Amino acid sequence: MKAKIGALSVVAIALIAIFMTINAGGNWDYVLPRRTKEILAIILTGCIIAFSTMVFQTITNNRILTPSIIGLDSLYMFIQTFVIFVFGSATSLMNANVNFLISTGGMVLFAGLLYKFLFKREGQNIYFLLLIGLILGTLFSSLSTFMQVLIDPNEFLVVQDKMFASFNNVKTDLLIISFVLVIAITIYFWRYIKYLDVLSLGRDQAINLGIPYDFVIKRFLIVIAILVSIATALVGPITFLGLLVANVAHQFLKTYQHKHLLAGSALISVVALVGGSLIVKHVFTFSTTLSVIVNFIGGVYFIYLLLKENKA
Asked: Which of 56, 111, 113, 166 could form a disulfide with 225 if both were Cys (CB 3.0 to 4.6 A apart)?
């Protein structure tokens, strides 16, 4: 197991080194600050998405679900479209810092109200939460599409830019805020990691083994909502990345221990994003975006998983 984690670490470090040095042309004063900021955004986002998806799949006991099913990605696009539809793209609300706070706050508030409403009664089925989240996500997506049809075409270009994840234009101060928030959440969450191996056995087995199931699940869902909100508000939505890296981690590591699965999925996520960024820049020469490549591969892999489960 350590050898596999070590191999992933070596691959990740090698790709990061290539990313930082390729075609630099000796212009280190210009290249290093820009690429350092971009690689930090990639590492942070990749780790957040991998971590959130792995935990989410464990508590739902389903490997084809991701946190996006709650509707946070759709809510993010609704917020971006609504702001431009009502105030226009020239508003101060589209300032990077203000937009980050509005997007993150809106998604966390939505998740908090959803959890409070659905978990006010003990024993509420988590799949009911997923169903409500899926319905609300569809509602937000429909409202976003409706407003996008009505707005000025020039304003729509601004909205369209928000539809795809971008690591190139991340602000340094937003990175600092995100890192601080993620570190604080990790410190809070650390005490609950020990429950994940037992939760993977299912609800009934976890309760029989003494896990305070409802209490722990609520904390996990809140942490997942905050982390996904930070990642989405920072770089934009990447729908299938979590599904891809979490399942590849399970297939590659073949273990139930989440200390290995979380580390492995995070490294695989970093490898996928850094490798994808290199392909976008030096193979496709920016003719496509990283999120398009990730979502395409993830979508194909998702169909494969569905067919595999159906056959099983």
From this structure: 111
